Amino acid sequence: MTPHRPWWQTEIVYQIYPRSFQDSNGDGIGDLPGIISRLDHLQDLGIGAIWLSPIYPSPMYDFGYDVSNYTDIGPEFGTMNDFKTLLAEAHRRNIRIILDLILNHTSHQHPWFKEASSSKDNPKRNWYIWHNGKPGASSKPPNNWQAAFGGRAWEWDAHTEQFYLHTFLKEQPDVNWRNFELQQAMWDVIHFWLDLGVDGFRLDVVNWFIKDRHFRDSPCRRWGLRPYDWQQHLYDRNQPETLEIMKQIRAIVDEYPHRMTVGEVYTEPPGDPELVATYYADGKGLYMAFNFAFLFCPWQAAAFAEAVDRWDALLGSNLWPNYTLSNHDQPRAFSRYARGHDSLARARVAAALLLTLRGTPFVYYGEEIGMRNGRIPRNRLQDPLGKRYWPFHSGRDGERTPMQWDNSVHAGFSQAEPWLPVNNDYPSVNVAAQQQESDSLLNWYRALIQLRQNEPALHSGSYQRWWVKDNVFCFERQLNDDRIMIALNFAPKERNIPLPQDVTWQTLLSTQVAKHHTLATNETHLPGYEVLIAKALSKGLNHVDPST
Ligand code: GLC
Fold first, then answer.
1. Which domain holds residue 352?
2. Pocket around ligand 1 at a 6 A CB cut-off
3. Given the CA of residue 66, which atom of ligand 1 is nearest to it?
4. Does the pLDDT value for residue 521 go beyond 80?
5. What pLDDT does residue 546 have?
6. Residues 499 and 408 grouped into a single domain
7. Can 204 be counted among the known catalytic residues?
8. Tell me, what CATH number does 354's domain have?
9. Residue 116 lies in a domain
10. Choice from 99, 265, 324, 329 to test ligand 1 binding pocket (greatest atom count within 8 A of CB)
11. Catalytic annotation, pick one of 40, 188, 254, 255
12. How many angstroms is it from 96 CA to the middle of ligand 1?
């Protein structure tokens, strides 16, 4: 019997960065009607949910991660009616919608902050985190905390003569999660969208919600590009009370059938899965917390295998893992792993890994066609992080360039000059071209997704590592009597892999070996960068003669 699993465990989630997906009104910025017009592509690909990066009204200092109204749609993205249409059209295609909720901070233009900063005795004053300067030196911030996007985490408000806290830009004041009324206002936001029918939330930087009551200084630890990296973040994030907030959010979302959350628990690269796992709160907190391990894995079978084993072991059989190769904050996987003529073959191996593991795969828009990180000239930089740290860090614009639909002007993304330049490989790297080529990366993603859906062992089975050897990662997924073996050759050279004796394996999907159909020997030859996915045939049953 196939265990009944909720959709967020069996489906594939596709992340859309709305500014860059499809423009419908010729302003160079992607929008909701644009997304609606591209739903067929997503349905064809076989994904089961879309995570939309923020679409709320925002002054766009951090491109939507600075929200000025939680319960409306930003005019550049469309209207509430457009959103309702998107929800209905997506649902009609069995695609769920996950909204990005940014609850650690608002925009400084949010009416709550405007009120809070209007006077010290405004009823909403404590919805944010205000503090006097250092005793005896009132013009100095109360402690040494740094902002993740540069500079001090405290901004002086001349009008009310106090500092307010901002973990990111000064235009993103942190809310005070210790305030009961603020909490209630956030619960209302969550109810608003759930009542409207959204299927879940991606929760931004959840581990920052609660700060130390005593605002103790962060100890220094090491050198890094940003002063933020020099500090040990003992007091400005991961406070134990945060888990209580996670549980409260869970309780609300649980009231609605078939909904979910996935939280971003920010940890320094290469990540801290032990810490991330705590945010599941043993099944009472986040439904899933992102595991970003793959974003920082070098191109080595052993590195990926270790990341998977660690995550799988940490979560055990009761909590549900997830994997992701790229997102809007990190350079795209295609570019990270690019190596000349091998780049495409590597992208196929990475996709096969992502889509055959136990855990929900998150696919970043454009990954399915092998979009690279764009090179953004300095005068076109948009991301505040890039503007501040260029040329040491060029920011996140490179992974946010417009989706490449076809070889027409601006890659079919917009009639107007797009807000970020289109990658110049778009005449050959685009959806329309790859739809035509049977062995394109797009069709490889499709085939993998289809296979994952057709084989319950792949979406719901257990995971077991067989071995990692000579840069080949081999593992098994099993559900009842179904056994599926996945062998991924990360090396450019051929390898021989041992297979268990007495089992006949039938190829389900592969990049090259497929022609052989059955693999009956106890050793199989894997060409360079080969992906081999094969199913164990029951002895004596369905035996396929290798000569046929
Ligand atoms: C998260 C988002 C990132 C944003 C930041 C501040 O890390 O993924 O894009 O800039 O939070 O909201």
1. 7-107+178-450
2. 62, 65, 102, 168, 204-205, 264, 266, 328-329
3. 12
4. no
5. 33
6. no
7. yes
8. 3.20.20.80
9. no
10. 329
11. 255
12. 22
374 and 484 part of one domain: no
- Residue 216 domain-assigned (yes or no): yes
Q: Are residues 325 and 433 in the same domain?
A: yes
Residue type, 104: N
- Quote the pLDDT of residue 520: 64
Would the pTM of this model clear 0.90, i.e. be above it? yes
**Hey, which residues does 479 pair with through a beta bridge?**
482
* The last residue of a domain, from among 419, 450, 481: 450
Residue 400 lies in a domain: yes
470 and 433, same structural domain?
no
SS (H, E, C) 181-245: HHHHHHHHHHHHHHHHCCCEEEECCHHHCCCCCCCCCCCECCCCCCHHHHECCCCCCCCCHHHHH
Could you give the number of structural domains in the chain?
2
CA distance 378 to 496: 48
Residue 206, token pair as written in the block = 């959840």
Percent of the chain with pLDDT over 90: 90
End of a domain among 450, 478, 505? Answer: 450
CA angle 201, 205, 211 (to 5 degrees): 125
Q: Which distant-in-sequence residues (6+ apart) come within 8 Å of 52 by Cβ?
A: 16, 18, 35, 97, 98, 99, 100
Asked if 387 and 326 sit in the same domain, the reply is yes
CA of residue 20 to ligand 1 center, whole Å: 17
Q: Is residue 273 one of the residues assigned to a domain?
A: yes
pLDDT given for residue 161 in this prediction: 97
Most informative mutation of 103, 167, 168 for ligand 1 (most atoms within 8 A of CB):
168
User: Residue 52, SS3?
Assistant: strand
- What separation in Å is there between the alpha carbon of 407 and the centre of ligand 1? 32
Same-domain status, 373 and 480: no
Active site residue 329: no
The residue whose CB lies within 8 Å of the most ligand 1 atoms, and thus the one to mutate among 16, 60, 65, is: 65
What rounded mean pLDDT belongs to the chain? 95
Of the residues 31, 100, 155, 204, which is catalytic? Answer: 204
pLDDT digits (tens, 9 = 90+) for 195-226: 999 999 999 999 999 999 999 999 998 777 88
